[in-house]
Design a protein that fits this description.
Strand content: 15-25%
Number of helices: 13
Order of helices and strands: HHEEHEEHEEHHEHEHHEHEHHEEH
Helix content: 25-40%
Strand order of the largest sheet: 1-2-8-7-6-5
Radius of gyration: 19 Å
Number of strands: 12
Shape: globular
Length: 325
């Protein structure tokens, strides 16, 4: 793998954000503790309340310190849901695919065979065990590791050991932050993947990632709900039916226009029903769902050389309401 040396270290960029989160644990309703082998655990919503601000900060941590995250008024079409999470990055490929994407499958061993989570955040880039890093030409050399887990329980020792073996860091330099989708923080940081979902779709469409110059997106904050499938449905629907992304790209206008046409979720055969219903239609088989569905509802792509912008898709407030209410 040819590794670029001109990209920032997401592990180092995120250190002050993680330490600030830990320092504010009491005010933010978090629990910090020592975990297996001496790693650090931060419960952000499993057995504690957490909150929207925790989710906002988790989104910035997932982005490896390369993104700006705010809670802002929603688009006018989504008047029933007044606030959204807005995410921007001047280096969206590194921030979203190199850090935020939940791509590292972590499964418990004999110590907890039922535990499973997808690892997100800058620690992925130090491990670089996913094929994606070969395509990105990126590997981080940070001596501190942070992983964010969409999970209701901390990782067992077997998972901690797997991460340590893959990254080579000392146990006391490893932090896991975890929160279930049903929690305020968990739901917020999942909806905060609106820009990352667009970047992942760009990647699957084989548009050259080096031509993505900048990006910003927003999606409505989904209300939490105790049932996991319903919570997963709401966070997906926030992006699929309520998300909007603006990408700035280099290259020919016709290719920017085609990217805009191909990106929205409405291109999917499974578009048109709340995600929870789609999930049940496929008997809970997540991977049977058309991958084209996982994309923002509306996109704008600007070709920077010409200044022309191309639009496709549209916000679907009725489907957001059907999911959220």
């Amino acid at each position: 793998m040819s590794v670029s040396t001109d990209r920032p270290s997401v592990g180092r960029q995120v250190e002050p954000l993680v330490e600030a989160l830990v320092a504010d644990a009491t005010a933010l309703r978090l629990r910090v503790s020592s975990g297996p082998l001496g790693c650090r655990l931060v419960d952000a919503g499993a057995t504690v309340r957490g909150g929207l601000e925790v989710g906002r900060r988790l989104t910035e941590i997932c982005l490896g310190g390369l993104g700006q995250v705010s809670i802002v008024p929603s688009l006018p079409e989504l008047g029933d849901w007044p606030y959204s999470i807005q995410v921007g990055s001047a280096d969206p490929v590194t921030a979203c695919l190199g850090s935020q994407y939940a791509g590292w499958a972590l499964a418990g061993g004999e110590d907890d065979p039922n535990w499973f989570a997808l690892g997100s955040g800058p620690g992925r880039a130090t491990a670089a065990v996913e094929e994606l890093y070969g395509e990105l030409g990126y590997k981080d050399a940070s001596e501190t590791i942070t992983l964010v887990l969409e999970a209701a329980a901390p990782p067992p020792e077997s998972v901690v050991r797997k991460v340590l073996d893959a990254t080579g860091v000392a146990p006391n330099k490893l932090t896991f932050i975890y929160a279930p989708t049903q929690s305020l923080a968990g739901a917020t940081q999942v909806v905060g993947r609106v820009l990352e979902v667009a970047l992942h779709k760009v990647h699957t469409l084989h548009f050259p990632l080096e031509r993505i110059i900048d990006g910003i997106g927003l999606a409505p904050l989904s209300p939490p709900i105790p049932d996991f499938v319903s919570a997963m449905g709401r966070t997906n629907d926030a992006i699929i039916y309520g998300g909007k992304v603006h990408l700035y790209v280099s290259g020919p206008d016709d290719e920017a226009e085609q990217l805009a046409k191909d990106l929205p979720s409405s291109n999917s055969r499974d578009y048109g029903a709340p995600f929870g219903e789609v999930f049940k239609t496929f008997n809970g088989d997540f991977y049977a769902i058309d991958g084209a569905l996982f994309s923002p509802a509306e996109v704008v792509v600007t070709a920077v050389e010409s200044g022309r912008s191309f639009r496709a898709g549209s916000i679907a407030p009725d489907l957001v309401n059907a999911s959220f209410k």
